[in-house]
Backbone:
């Protein structure tokens, strides 16, 4: 695998620099760039092409949510991983809706940061367990105010479960002994049926409707 | 007879001068001027009544003037009484102004306090929080296979200290001012608070509201949030309740909050016992919002608190994040 170029978008200078030291020490990391806010970040991605972006949420001028939306409009293939102090459902939901591939809390251990980076770079989603746990709890106590879940076939449910576990389409295909094309088809049908935009929203949908357990 | 008349004249004159002396204090209120003149004329009338004792020949003229004076006094007193309504009105106005300015001072104090709390919470959370997080990441990035013995013990200790610091920083900052209230509003903040309380697992909480996407003025959101937290804390600390139900309903600019618990309850009038329950604090918060708060005992057991305030909806858009 080629070495990664990572861009950290965060308004806290010391945090950025500290994280940069840690990331640069990793074998599979090439360059680590920094942007102090969403505005600088949006200008930077026009010239540099990071393999992964670590995005803070609360920032001056353009915040992480807006920056993610605008960046993905310009470059839909960008891989953005939210890295936030806040683990509340509201922030999580907004970042997922904006199109991030994962959500990580700043107070994570470094091994988790590495794991999240690897997972997202490989094209999968990564959500920190703390948030998933909180989401499940939230929807457990909340009286069901959402519309009943759509009916899914057994195969679709299996695929959904594996998507939630963060597996790629190829890995799902291998595990279920079906072709990758079939998995692609199931994934597309899941997104249409549940009216969700991406795998991350699909995971939230599954949690909200108690279709999976974390 | 003459002596009695003279004594009454002396008293009438004293009353008249006192009344005239008070005119200035009533800010020359018209009704008081009429009443003072009437008092003076009553004294004059007394003096007139004294004249026939010395000049019998003037009796018939004096009698006429006496009657005329009586009519005049009656008219003045009537006018005085009619105008005294205004005096009461202005007293009420002064009272209203005093109450309003008290309320404004109260609001200003609360506003300043909240602003300071918010700033402090933000400084802690956004300033020191990322530093602690970075220390944690750095410590956990160390290659522990290279470290053993005493050094390993020290590093493990540092790790647990950092974890503890992160937890208490979050707790403190959230207690000072929950960022989620400012960014996402009352319903989200209450939800998050309930989530934390539910973790204790002692109370079953039902929360329903129709303000999920509604934002109110920051003063309303903050005060209501604080009251709701106080209600929950009272239930947890004092009520030994198993169930709590909270309802927040906003309809046509009226926000109604109803909070029930099935605990031991308390007598809302029993002020001595309720010192520690922050009821007076809740009252002043609601006073600052011009609202009403009521505590009622419900049978067979439990308490109901209901709050009603008038609101102006700010926006229906969520969050600034």
Residues:
């Amino acid at each position: 695998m080629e070495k990664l170029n990572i861009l950290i978008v965060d308004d806290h200078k010391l945090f950025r620099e500290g994280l940069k030291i840690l990331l640069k020490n990793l074998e599979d990391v090439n360059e680590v760039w920094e942007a102090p806010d969403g505005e600088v970040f949006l200008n930077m991605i026009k010239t540099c092409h990071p393999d992964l972006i670590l995005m803070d949420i609360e920032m001056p001028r353009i915040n992480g949510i807006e920056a993610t939306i605008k960046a993905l409009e310009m470059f839909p293939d960008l891989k953005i991983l939210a890295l936030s102090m806040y683990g509340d459902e509201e922030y999580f939901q907004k970042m997922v809706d904006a199109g991030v591939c994962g959500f990580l809390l700043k107070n994570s251990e470094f091994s988790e940061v590495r794991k999240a980076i690897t997972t997202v770079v490989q094209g999968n989603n990564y959500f920190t367990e703390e948030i998933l746990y909180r989401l499940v709890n939230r929807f457990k106590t909340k009286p069901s105010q959402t519309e009943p879940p759509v009916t899914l076939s057994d195969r679709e449910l299996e695929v959904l479960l594996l998507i939630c576990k963060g597996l790629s389409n190829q890995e799902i295909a291998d595990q279920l002994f079906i072709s990758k094309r079939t998995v692609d088809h199931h994934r597309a049908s899941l997104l249409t049926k549940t009216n969700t935009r991406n795998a991350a929203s699909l995971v939230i949908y599954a949690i909200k409707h108690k279709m999976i357990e974390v | 007879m003459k002596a009695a008349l003279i004594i009454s004249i002396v008293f009438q004159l004293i009353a008249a001068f006192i009344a005239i002396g008070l005119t200035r204090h009533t800010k020359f209120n018209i009704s008081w001027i009429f009443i003072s003149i009437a008092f003076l004329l009553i004294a004059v009338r007394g003096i007139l009544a004294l004249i026939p004792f010395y000049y019998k020949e003037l009796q018939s003229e004096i009698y006429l003037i006496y009657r005329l004076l009586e009519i005049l006094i009656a008219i003045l007193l009537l006018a005085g009484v009619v105008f005294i309504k205004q005096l009461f009105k202005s007293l009420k106005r002064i009272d209203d102004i005093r109450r309003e300015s008290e309320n404004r001072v109260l609001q200003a104090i609360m506003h300043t306090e909240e602003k300071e709390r918010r700033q402090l919470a933000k400084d802690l959370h956004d300033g020191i929080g990322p530093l602690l997080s970075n220390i944690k990441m750095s410590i956990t990035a160390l290659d522990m296979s290279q470290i053993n013995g005493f050094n390993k013990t020290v590093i493990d200790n540092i790790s647990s200290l950092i974890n503890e610091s992160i937890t208490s920083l979050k707790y403190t900052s959230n207690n000072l001012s929950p960022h989620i209230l400012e960014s996402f509003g009352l319903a989200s903040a209450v939800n998050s608070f309930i989530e934390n309380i539910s973790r204790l697992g002692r109370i079953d909480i039902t929360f329903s509201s129709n303000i999920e996407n509604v934002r109110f003025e920051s003063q309303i959101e903050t005060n209501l949030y604080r009251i709701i937290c106080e209600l929950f804390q009272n239930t947890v600390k004092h009520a030994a309740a198993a169930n709590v139900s909270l309802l927040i309903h906003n309809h046509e600019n009226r926000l109604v909050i109803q909070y029930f618990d099935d605990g031991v309850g308390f007598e809302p009038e029993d002020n001595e016992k309720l010192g520690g329950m922050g009821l007076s604090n809740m009252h002043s918060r609601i006073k600052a919002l011009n609202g009403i708060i009521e505590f009622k005992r419900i049978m067979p057991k439990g308490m109901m608190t209901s709050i009603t305030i008038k609101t102006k909806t700010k926006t229906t858009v969520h969050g600034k994040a």
Remarks:
- Confidence is low (pLDDT under 50) at residues 317-321 of chain B.
